[in-house]
């Protein structure tokens, strides 16, 4: 008997939520980068730094979330810390004015 190589069928690749959210993130941050040139933003260096840090956090937390239950809890904790810091900054900046 001869061994025949198995034919691979052309089945479409399954699109996962992770793939969709990664694609969304790419378009989101590319759109923010395009906004620098379209709207003529004055503080370009600060805006680029914001986009860089936001992009790193987005993709890091997104990919950690899909690693497993322990990492999912870590992501929830990080999101709680970010939300708490954001609320603190709202009141802090309001008091400082």
* Sheet with most strands: none
Shape: flat
Counted beta strands: 0
Helical content stands at over 70%
What are the segments in which pLDDT stays under 50 over at least 5 consecutive residues? none
Count the DSSP helices. Answer: 3
Strand content: under 5%
State the secondary-structure class.
mainly alpha
Give the overall average pLDDT.
Answer: 90
Radius of gyration: 21 Å
SSE pattern: HHH
Measured distance between first and last alpha carbons: 85 Å
Furnish the topology, listing elements before pairings.
Blueprint: H1 17-39, H2 44-65, H3 69-96
Key words describing this protein structure:
mainly alpha; flat
Task: Summarize this structure briefly.
The chain has 97 residues and is mainly α. It has helices spanning 17-39, 44-65, 69-96. Helix 1 packs antiparallel against helix 2 (44-65) and helix 2 (44-65) packs antiparallel against helix 3.
Question: What features would you describe in this structure?
Answer:
- The structure is a single chain.
- Helix 1 (17-39) runs antiparallel to helix 2 (44-65) and helix 2 (44-65) runs antiparallel to helix 3 (69-96).
- Helices cover 75% and strands 0% of the residues.
- With 97 residues, it is mainly alpha-helical.
- The longest helix has 28 residues, at 69-96.
- The mean pLDDT is 90.
């Amino acid at each position: 008997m001869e061994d025949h190589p198995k034919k691979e069928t052309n089945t479409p690749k399954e699109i996962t939520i992770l793939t969709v959210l990664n694609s969304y993130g790419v378009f989101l941050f590319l759109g923010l980068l395009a906004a620098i040139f379209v709207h003529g933003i004055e503080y370009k260096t600060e805006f680029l730094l914001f986009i860089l840090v936001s992009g790193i956090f987005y993709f890091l937390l997104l990919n950690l979330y899909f690693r497993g239950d322990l990492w999912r809890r870590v992501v929830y904790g990080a999101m709680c810390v970010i939300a708490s810091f954001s609320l603190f900054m709202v009141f802090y900046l309001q008091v400082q004015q």
